[in-house]
Design brief:
The protein has 137 residues and is of the alpha/beta class. 16% of the residues lie in helices and 41% in strands. Bound molecules: copper (II) ion (CU).
Length: 137
């Protein structure tokens, strides 16, 4: 009987971990280089996700991110702040696709996020609207 309490707590912890793992399910895309020498990746945003949420591109090859969001009243943005790698943008997402152009100059993993928030609620990144932008050599 004494152990029942510990078992219960363990089960609670396990389910909490499982729920969190579900929220951050990885959708990975490795960009291909198009015939015109540009790496194009489409990114869809919504409440509260980016799809894909793990993007791999090659260094020193131009990138075009074609971004849009699902219809809905919640505003979303897409931003990466990595000026040291030639990546520095903060764009509001619309349902109509928008093209973001840059050329990454430094290998590494950079945070891709939406930092919108409603009043005192958690920002969208904390709700799962985040991803990894990886630049490889
Ligand atoms: Cu958002």
């Amino acid at each position: 009987m004494r152990y029942a309490k510990y078992l219960f707590v363990t089960l609670l912890l396990c389910s909490a971990v499982t729920i969190h793992a579900k929220e951050i399910k990885e959708k990975r895309v490795v960009a291909a280089v198009d015939a015109d020498g540009v790496q194009r990746v489409k990114i869809l945003g919504g409440d509260y996700f980016f799809d894909p949420n793990y993007i791999v591109v090659k260094m020193n090859i131009p990138v075009e991110l074609i971004v849009n969001k699902e219809s809905g009243i919640v505003p979303h943005n897409i931003l990466i702040k990595a000026p040291e790698a030639g990546i520095d943008f903060d764009e509001n997402m619309r349902t109509k696709p928008k093209v973001i152009k840059f050329t990454p100059t430094k290998a590494g993993k950079y945070d891709l996020i939406c930092n919108k928030r409603f009043l005192f609620f958690k920002d969208h990144r904390a709700k799962g609207m985040e991803g990894v932008f990886e630049v490889i050599e």
